[in-house]
Design a protein that fits this description.
This protein is mainly alpha-helical. Helices cover 68% and strands 0% of the residues.
C-alpha cells in the first residue's frame, strides 16, 4: 500500500514512477482501494481520539511518571 524510496535519489523515484505507469487500470484501482482502506483504518479520527484518551487515562492513573509529563 505504499513505497519506500530513498529520499533525494531521483533514479529510484523515476524507476518506481515508470513501474506504476505500466500498471493496468485494474491494478491501479486495486492499489488505490487498498491504500485508502489502510489509511482509513489506521488514521481515522475515531482511532486518534481513542489513543489520546488512553494516554490521558494512563497519565491520570500514574501521576508523576513520563506518561503524565
Amino acid at each position: 500500500t505504499g513505497f519506500l524510496l530513498p529520499a533525494g535519489y531521483a533514479p529510484a523515484w523515476a524507476e518506481k514512477i515508470e513501474q506504476v505507469r505500466a500498471w493496468t487500470q485494474d491494478r491501479r484501482i486495486a492499489f488505490l482501494e487498498q491504500s485508502q482502506a489502510l489509511a482509513a483504518s489506521h488514521f481515522s479520527w475515531e482511532r486518534v481520539a481513542h489513543e489520546t484518551c488512553e494516554v490521558y487515562c494512563e497519565a491520570r492513573a500514574n501521576p508523576g511518571t513520563a506518561a503524565a509529563e
